[in-house]
Amino acid sequence: MKSHVAARAVSACIVLLVVSPGCKSGGRQFGDLPDIDGSVRRDAGPDAGPRPERMHDGGPGGYADAEPVDECMPSCGPEELCGMTGDGDGLDNDCDGMVDEDCPCTASGVTRACFRGPPDRRGVGSCADGVMTCTEFLTWSTCEGGQFPEDETCDGADNDCNGVPDDGLSECSTTLTCPGSELAAPLTTHLLRGSTIYTGAARSWAWTITCPATVDPCPAPADPTARDTTIYFVSSGSYRAQLDIVAEDGTELGCDWVVHVQGSGLRVELNWDTRGEGHGDTDVDLHLHRRTVPAGTMTGETAFFSDDDCYFANCKGSNYSTALRSRWSLLDTSDMSACEAAPHGQGEYWMDKGACYNPRLDVDVITCNPDITDPTDSSFCAPENINVDRPEPGSTYRIMVNYYSDHNYLGEGVVETHPSVSIYCGGELRGAFGLDPLVTLRNGDGYGESNDNWMVADVTFFEGECGRLECMVNPIGDIVRGAGFGPPWSL
User: Fold this and answer.
1) Who contacts 99 (Cβ-Cβ below 8 Å, separation ≥6)?
2) How far apart are CA 103 and CA 79, in angstroms?
């Protein structure tokens, strides 16, 4: 029987306020725009206006004349490239406004970070990746969300992503210094600094965070009306931060940018729709099994619920198994920021150990209160997550979700639960499964492995171009009743 661990509660996403179309100081036109992971938001704010359709002949800001900032991301070329795996590289290599349009993808639900713009501008200034998804026709969807190069606007930001804010503008004078995209780590507190964006006196400050569709619940700033505030990020993903300011003279100012919340290596996050009070605290668990048989071998795999499987009984800071640690033989992560703020008190256990072990289960949700919106509260319904910060090239892992128990709850709808899993490699979302199509799990006659087990995907790591660690996600999708391992490993 599992011991109960405090958890946290579901809250609705913070939605941007709807305002009348118009211009703020800085000259940006407002309108509808997809968020980073595809959902539509209102009031795009500065640095998030219409995107150029084509970028040949230099495009806005003179793209063709810019020096590449990364030799692995050359400038615009004559054709689209599909990368070393043949299923795309997430770049608009021919700079026609489309990404990997000539590259087939491998399986529905697989995702990839993408950038619509000259590849050498990726990650520079205000530019930030979007996400594309493999469709049922095994073609890539459009690259949704993100921020891509556009003409410079007098707002203190590098809108054309050439490394120089407000260049080429005559008589530009602005009181704003809008940030470029920022990086943060999951399970950490991130500073939102209005004082570095606007140094003058102001009547009001208003912070808004818009979450990617994969994040549930959506966190809120600690004080959304403070000049400087903080936000605790539980889940990975690309979030939009917006700051609206009313200056002392009544002038409306605003900035809009992206905060990428990224872990290292492999990170898997699990949500389900029957967490918490009111649903009998339905208990669904995340598992990660390492491959122990050689590639090409079809039989002889060890079972889940063993020390080849990272799960609630052996992989938390509070109960870490020496046998698991020995069998996996992975290097620990000395940077304690990767785990020291883990929810439900688990961060304290990692701090006592002096390292973030690999693999590790940072959150195991059993009981929680959906009415709690503070992600630092011990009753918050956080997503479960498993991490391997330093996967080795050639390693393969299988992700499984187990419907552990409904705690004999007799309330309506608890017999079924609907989990969703997000898979991140090197901080990039590489697969989102369980929502489209919906996955349904049913409880069995007891606890644990006798109930439904959803075999989600196999993830294999390899060394990509320029020595970068890459991964391939192979969806499985089987639901197995009982302790079966599922189909043979993806090869």
Assistant:
1) 88, 90, 91, 92, 114, 115, 116, 132, 140, 142, 143
2) 11
Let me know: does 96 contact 142? Beta carbons within 8 Å. no
Length of the chain counted residue by residue: 491
Q: Comparing 229 with 443, which gets the higher pLDDT?
A: 229
Question: Tokens 């998030």 belong to which residue?
Answer: 48
Do the beta carbons of residue 212 and residue 237 sit within 8 Å?
yes
Query: Residue 205 to residues 29, 221, 252, 443, 490: CA-CA distances in angstroms?
Result: 20, 12, 10, 48, 51
Report CA torsion sign: 273, 276, 278, 284. positive
Confirm if 29 and 19 have CB atoms less than 8 A apart: no
Residues 6 or more apart whose CB falls under 8 angstroms from that of 314 comprise 307, 320, 321, 323, 324
The highest-confidence range among 31-40, 141-150, 223-232, 431-440, by mean pLDDT, is 223-232
pTM, rounded to two decimals: 0.81
Instruction: List for the chain the helix, strand, coil content (%; round to 5).
Output: 5, 30, 60
User: What is the per-residue pLDDT for 120?
Assistant: 87
pLDDT number for residue 247? 94
pLDDT by residue (tens digit) across 212-225?
888 878 888 999 99
Per-residue pLDDT tens digits for 116-137: 988 888 888 888 888 999 998 9
The CA dihedral of 128, 18, 132, 11, to the nearest 10 degrees, is 100
**Where do the structural domains in the chain lie, given as residue ranges?**
266-481
CA-based nearest residue to 330, from 315, 343, 341: 315
pLDDT at residue number 319: 95
Of 456, 416, 420, the residue nearest 438 (C-alpha)? 420
pLDDT at 14 over 60: no
CA pair distance 446, 123, nearest whole angstrom: 50
| CA pair distance 347, 351, nearest whole angstrom | 6
CB atoms within 10 A of CB 250: 7
- Give φ, ψ of 350 to 5 degrees: -65, -35
Distance between CA atoms of 398 and 287, rounded to whole angstroms? 8
Q: Band the pLDDT of 31: cuts 50, 70, 90.
A: very low
- Cβ distance 475 to 487 under 8 Å? no
